[in-house]
Specification:
single chain; 141 residues; six-stranded antiparallel β-sheet; 23% strand
Length: 141
Amino acid sequence: MTKVALIRQCSLHPLSLLDRLAKNFMQEDFILLQDYHNLDILLNRMAALGRRADGSRRPVLSVYAGGDCVFINTLKDSSSLGPQVAPEAEPSRALLEQEVLGGILNLSPQDRSATVTYTQDPAAALKAVEDGQYQLAVLLA
């Protein structure tokens, strides 16, 4: 099941966040259809990108800031971030919390508890961003 982090507000413009992620992540755009009719295709793409040949998981974070475009970010094999994630941790969530929330966005644990909400309903999360309730949704695979 897909987990989604909803971020109420952050200090960076979404494009600046993507720029900062580019060092360690391969990025691709995914165009959403109206009413998210192709959301299942996005989730399947994320799952496929997250599968490694040896059966292990590669972190995939997809950033949505509204509109019709989701930015899929797949951790590069050459990234130094991979070994930092504990083997028992959910790799995508661990990277989100360590590198994005704690690192790039510089949110303290207290800020995170006030700013970040998790859900397992991707369509509702995208709608919440579209409606302006949240600034970003980060889908985790």
